[in-house]
Amino acid sequence: MKIAIYNIEGKDTGKKADLNEAVFGIEPNDHAIYLDIKQFMANNRQGTHKAKERGEIRASTRKIKRQKGTGTARAGAISNPLFRGGGRVFGPRPRTYNSKLNKKVKQLARKSALSYKAKEKSIIVLEDFTLEAPKTSEFVKINNNLKVNDKKSLFVLNHPDKSIYLSSRNLKGTKVVSASELTTYDIVNASTLVLSKSSIEVLDQILGN
After folding, report:
1. How are beta strands 123-126 and 2-6 bridged, if at all?
2. Which CATH code for domain 2-45+98-207?
3. Which of 81, 111, 112, 176 is the most buried (most CB within 10 A)?
């Protein structure tokens, strides 16, 4: 699959990038995408929720009424869950939501998401570039030149670049990741995928086998 390569001015360089059919041209597997995104979002949950139960409520332990003869249910203390301000029955406790997923399923999910983007023609291949110093205005120009300033864009680099990352982190709807850190969630969440030319080679090495 051939695709044009653009420079940071948004102009076609006349060169073509070859997208591996084994990575960008497979029959997408929706269930694999679902499983990978579900695991990603579950693993990002803090799991710090907590509600006080009956034994943790700070209140008097005096028996608030006699056992019998009131015509209502017996109650031993004001911390009874039936009363306002009492403990909660089976309330949430701190826990981990982490789960595991087969490595091949995760690879299939990423290839499926990339194939969807290729079919939708939502991939832009960009010449490798760098910024001399972190400057948001420079990165805004690149977004404008590529006409992705009003879209959710994901820039994928072959390796982490601090200047590019710092230049982009204040921009809403723009994210920069390295190819080795690319997740299915990032791909699906972006409307346009901007791949640096050398990042395609890294993706081939990771997902092409």
Report:
1. parallel
2. 3.40.1370.10
3. 111
Listed residue (123, 137, 84) closest to 4, CA to CA: 123
pTM: 0.83
Mean pLDDT, each 10-residue run in order, the chain (209 residues): 89 89 94 97 95 92 91 91 92 94 95 95 92 92 90 92 92 92 95 93 87
The C-alpha atoms of residue 91 and residue 170 are separated, in whole angstroms, by: 39
**3-class SS at 174?**
strand
Give pLDDT, residue 44. Answer: 95
Residues of the chain with CATH 3.40.1370.10: 2-45+98-207
